[in-house]
Every structure is written in C-alpha cells, then in structure tokens.
Design brief:
Layout lengths: L1 H18 L4 E2 L5 H13 L16 H10 L15 H6 L10 E4 L6 H8 L10 H6 L20 E2 L13 H15 L3 E8 L12 H9 L5 E9 L18 H12 L4 E5 L2 H10 L23 H22 L6
Parallel strand pairs: 2-4, 4-5, 5-6
Antiparallel strand pairs: 1-3
Helix pairs in contact: 2-3, 7-8, 10-11
Length: 332
C-alpha cells in the first residue's frame, strides 16, 4: 500500500511537471488562514497603508471563499480570465488619485515597493486589498479525485510558465486581471519605474505592464505618466553600454506608444529621491558613490519626494543599528 501511494504521488508530480514549463511550488499549505488573517488586518487598516471607509464592510469569510472557489477543483491551465471577478468586486484594487505606481523589470531590487513603503504618496499593486492578500502566495487547483481538497499542494504554474502550453493558468490569470483593474481605476498622474539595464529592454513587450497595463490606461482619467528610469542596483559594476535613456531604445518606443494612446508622459533618469532610497538598501553599489558625499534633500520636494528622502536616512540609521546589535554592541 505504501509503495502504491508513493507511486501515485510521484506520478502526480510528473504529470503536473510535464503539463507546463517553469513550474513553481504547490499551493501554500495554510493559505486559507493566511488569506483570512491578511483580510482582517487590511479591513481594520492595521497594515499602515491605504484605508478606505468601505473596508469595514468587507466580509472576509465571503471574500476568502470567493477567492478559493475560483481555484478549487479547477484545471491549473484553464482558468477563466474573469474567474476572480466576484472576489475583486468584494475587495477592489483601489488607490487614491495621483498615487498609482507601476513597475517592470525591477522586482529584484525592490525599488517600487521600497518607495511605496516609505511614502503613502505612492501605492503599488501589492499594497491594494487583493494584492496584499495574495502577495507571495502560490495557488492552483487539482482535478485529481484522490485530492479531496481540490488544490494541488505539489506544484503549480507561475507567471513565468510558458503560456503556449498553459494558456490560462490560475496564478497568471489572477495577476493579469487584478493588474488590469488596478490600471483602469488609476486617476491623475501615475508613475512608472523602469530598469534602464534590463537585458530584454526597459520596456519589454511580454511583460505584464506592456501586455495588460498599458492598454488599460485611460487617457480621460490619467493626466500624465511619469517615467522614472533607474540603473540596475543588483549589478556588481556599472555597465553604461547596455543602459537605455529617456530618448533611446525601448523607452523611446514606450513613450511613442503612450503618446499614440493620448497619454501625456514625462521621463526622468536617476531621480534623486529614488536613488537615495535604493542607496540605503544597496550602500555598496557603484551607483551610490555620488550619494555618499552629499545629504538628501528632505524638504521642498513635490509629492512624496521629501518623505522618500527622509525615509532613506531612516533606513540607513536602522541598518547601522542592526549591524551594531549583530556584533554584540549595546545600544543605550
């Protein structure tokens, strides 16, 4: 009997693996509890970010049931694009006017998330209600009759899974649809952080931003797309040979696309406030040498810039304190 169970288990892994390329981990084991906990936390405005009045009316049990119901017992590769719409109606990805920030190609450097964490003037998708609930979770359904839960806890497709072999996978569909809704509700000036040294170009046509978010930008509601073009802080040394500017490469193509859509746009290379914040995270980066010789401008900025600059100094201070504590120093 144990041998049979092992054989069935290995067979299910093999079947799931060959069904799609670049698989990820299986469904998060305690996902129901995580979702409920995050929902309650967000509803009570304990997360420190957005706080809309309607949050208090959210029924977390119903929201979680709706989310899981879109996954349970479903083929991981045949999810409807609108499968999660009931969930999104309960917890829409709303932001305040002039605070929506997009990003592409900079996930490894945590740039937009750092910006959003230190200033409520900028909100990324992961800080909205549905984004916060699902962030860093893995999920997909199972049609295996031997899995009564209806979830695959072994392996799931991811956003990187080949769409030709798994065209509507449960995970990618969630993030594509919520990204579209996040974009459609954006009003006022919106912000975009791009990696000037991305191998496939700062504006990569297969990215979620290019495929989903750009077409969803509403020129009747969005007054300007402010592009922030920054270097790749994860590179060990600067490499200006592969670095795009606001006027060449894929960035120029993007600006042309935005203009054709009737969207005003501006572009800034190495904005001081974001550079300061990233140098707090990557103090040894070659890009941070100029910033080690000057103080950040913590006043007179526009929008959330002064908050970002001030917060970068806070991050630096906390890093110093953490280092001292790890080395056994007493902090009086």
């Amino acid at each position: 009997m144990n041998l049979l169970r092992t054989s069935l288990f290995l067979s299910s892994i093999l079947a799931a693996t060959v069904a799609y390329t670049l698989p990820g981990p299986g469904t998060t084991w305690n996902m129901t509890d995580v979702l409920l906990g995050r929902c309650v936390e967000y509803r009570q405005c304990l997360h420190g970010g957005l706080c809309f009045p309607y949050y208090g009316d959210v029924n977390c049990d119903a929201a979680v049931d709706s989310f899981l119901g879109a996954i349970r017992g479903m083929d991981p590769c045949t999810a409807s694009y609108y499968a999660y719409d009931d969930f999104f109606n309960m917890v829409p990805p709303n932001t305040k006017p002039g605070t929506t920030i997009f990003w592409t190609g900079v996930s490894g450097a945590y740039i937009p998330h750092d910006v959003a964490e230190v200033s409520q003037e900028y909100i990324v998708l992961g800080e909205t209600f549905p984004g916060y609930m699902a962030l860093n979770l893995s999920f997909c359904g199972s049609t295996d009759p031997n899995e009564p839960s209806g979830f695959n806890y072994t392996v799931c497709p991811t956003e990187d899974t080949d769409r030709a072999g798994c065209s509507n996978n449960t995970f990618a569909t969630f993030w594509d649809r919520v990204s579209e809704l996040f974009t459609r509700q954006a009003t006022g000036e919106v912000y975009l952080v791009l990696n000037a040294q991305r191998d496939r170009g700062a504006y990569h046509l297969e990215s979620t931003f290019a495929r989903v978010e750009v077409p969803a930008l509403d020129p009747t509601k969005v007054t300007n797309v402010a592009i922030y073009l920054i270097p790749d802080f994860t590179l060990p040394t600067p490499n200006d040979k592969v670095r795009e500017t606001c006027s060449n490469g894929t960035v120029a193509s993007l600006r042309g696309v935005l203009t054709d859509l009737g969207l005003s746009n501006t572009c800034e290379e190495d904005p001081d406030d974001i550079m300061w914040l990233q140098c707090a995270r990557y103090p040894d980066s070659p890009y941070c040498i100029p910033y080690s010789r000057q103080e950040p401008n913590t006043g007179g900025g526009t929008g959330g810039s002064s908050a970002i600059a001030a917060a970068s100094m806070t991050v630096l201070f906390l890093q110093v304190v953490s280092t001292l504590l790890l080395n056994g120093c007493k902090i009086d």
